[in-house]
Amino acid sequence: MNDKLIETFLDEAHELLDGLEDHLLDLEKNPSDIEAMNAAFRALHSIKGSASMFGFEAVGAFAHEVEAALDFFRSASLPATPELSDAVLRSRDHIRALLDAPDSASAEEREDLIAILAGITGKATKPENAKEEAALPKDIREFTPGQFKTFRIKYKPSADCYHRGVKPEALIRELRGLGEASIRCDAQAIPALTQLDPESCYLSWNALLTTSMQKSAINDVFIFEEGTSEVSIEEIDHDDVMDGTEVKKLGEILSARNLPGGDIDKALSRQRPIGEILVKEMGTPEAVVEDALFEQQHARNIVKAAKDESDRKTIRIRSDKLDGLLNLVGELVTVQAQLSQTVKDSGDRHLHGISDYVKRLAGELRTTAMELRLVPVDSLFAKFKRLARDLSKNLEKELELKLEGGDTEIDKSVIDVLNDPLVHLVRNAADHGLEATADRAAVGKPTVGTITLKAQHAGAFVRISVSDDGKGLNRERILKRAVDRGVIAQDARLTDDEIDQLIFKPGFSTAEVVSNVSGRGVGLDVVKTAIDQLGGTLTVNSRIGKGTEFCLDIPLTLAIIDGFLVRSGNRNFVIPLSSVDSCFERERPKDPERLIVRGKDFIPYVSSRDLFGEDETAPTREEVVIVSVFESKLAIGFDQVIGGYQTVIKPIGEIARYAAGISGAAILADGGIALILDVAALARTHKGVS
Amino acid sequence: MLDITIRAPENAGIASIAVLKDELLSAIEKAAKGSSIMLDLSGTTHADSSLAQVILAFEATAADKGLRATIKGDDDLSLRSLLSSDSVGRPDGKAKRKPAEAEGDRA
Known about the structure:
Number of domains of chain A: 5
Mean pLDDT of chain B: 81
Order of helices and strands of chain B: EEHEEHEHE
Number of helices of chain B: 3
CATH superfamily of chain B: STAS domain
CATH superfamily of the largest domain in chain A: Histidine kinase-like ATPase, C-terminal domain
Oligomer: heterodimer
Largest interface: A-B, 48 and 42 residues
CATH class of chain B: Alpha Beta
Strand order of the largest sheet of chain A: 8-10-11-13-12
Mean pLDDT of chain A: 81
Strand content of chain B: 15-25%
Shape of chain B: globular
Low-confidence stretches of chain B: 93-107
Shape of chain A: globular
Distance between the termini of chain B: 51 Å
Strand order of the largest sheet of chain B: 1-3-5
Number of domains of chain B: 1
């Protein structure tokens, strides 16, 4: 079998398993959620089918067992029991193990799970009216006229339907579940309130349903209405309303209803809606035109659903190919800068025009290449629902996970690296942050603790925060542990912020009991290292009794940025343009300054000469650049502002650890080097002076 | 002018719908021409199409008597939702789409 095909199958199977997990978690919250049950079933069904096709026989056979258990509940319209959800979740994990490392997946566990599932279905009672084999309708987005049929359904419940315990709207909802439906309720028979018997039904429904199901499936919906209510189901010809995949015009639909052709032609010749003319002037029954319009709208819905799907068509590309593309674009940006400089020096106007065009194309190519790598952070967040659910069970704490800003997009490579740090922070919040359920109740807090995962953009950074509404950091215990471990001196005097930062020291943990969730004495330092390696920062804010928030500020991209080129002495620096708030020129101050005043703001100030040292004599004037990162601002004095500059970030590896305020380097057009400033770190370091 | 608010029960299904209808009817009889009657559904958590029928009859009857009928509640209790429908042909014909207003392609 072609390796690429298997790779594609595995990618898709993992996606299906992620979706399955989501649906099962929904089902656990709402055991009667038919949509979630059907979606979970569909995911398992797809995995089963493809696994057998690609030679993953064990996966196919096991998925079949799990699917059968799920189908037992689904076809009998039984709510999912907690035992079922739990067993299918565990089965999902086992399928994943079978796919990732077939040899290490335990056959014993597989047998156990099959026995558990059999036990669950054995215990569940299937109602007598349960459908034995419930087929699923195909997604309407796969619409092709041959595979789908359209039915016109008219349903007029008997007046006493409410007394018979029938909820007609529930039957209509069930009908909707069979495919793409357009439904109109006719309430015109309802009398005035004085005449109304509120326990009698005066309603009727007209529906158009396009579905891959047989007519018998529609009959099943109304099975208990046979003989008591009026139900008619009639298949209509797609050709009446559609021409291939195009929706017919109203006139074409009406002419198929045997209306006189002359009338239609006359009506069309006027510049007024054809329906209006036919009804008002030519005596066409209003209901005929209404029905035609209804069918036309339904056909439009079908075509739109199918088109939306085709517009969304995607292709899969290996991420290393995208990395390669971005590297090439990076090189192109560097060469283009060199070209621009050379052309500028040559003074050739013709070449100048070509160079400008190349610059614009390189810029557009760069933007497109960057966008290709952006993925919504939702794909990362979604995994945490399961983690939160498992933590809640293991720790016996009631907890709710809130996800915010899931549509925030981040570079794929950043997402890959963020997973482990976030897992650790969420575990930490559940284990150490949130109090035990009884303790929360005792202090008047809601018994359900909340952990919030949130993403938001801020200039060239994305901030991902993990917060809880737990007890907050115990600074007394942190200090004691730091002193005991020799991290700080016995008589050290630290601010609250400084104490909080101690938790990121290697081997630091205040957990008194080592649990299997967290508290092994490793962790937060590992999280900090991972974030440092991304060029990001990790901070913590905590309030006693209110909770703790960890903020991860990560650069949006690790590859190319729009920069602001500045110079100090003979050194060049690049500031990420999105961090630049403003700049101005002024006389260089004779005495050292730590603050400048801009309007009503006092902004911490530092000279680049003081930051990075400089031997050359300073010019009499300086350019001050004000940078802004999240809530912090910092003014930095330079000798010269050169201007906007698109640059490729070259990592400087371990050197960055020892070069405070530098996050990378860039190659300039003349082949020289510019250092990229880590404005977040600089702003943080100098925040204290204000 | 007297403005009246009628609160629908938490469970506005077949068991309680007759009482709600009587309250609305009594409010309509009491209300002076031009005044408002509000049906407050904000405390209603369960309802079915029998409530939709009463709302439709209430609106039409109130309009006939020159009264303003308003409904307060969330989207889950909208007529379309209660009737599982994309459109509703009302008893007074107000919201019914007329061919004259149809936006369907003309030819």
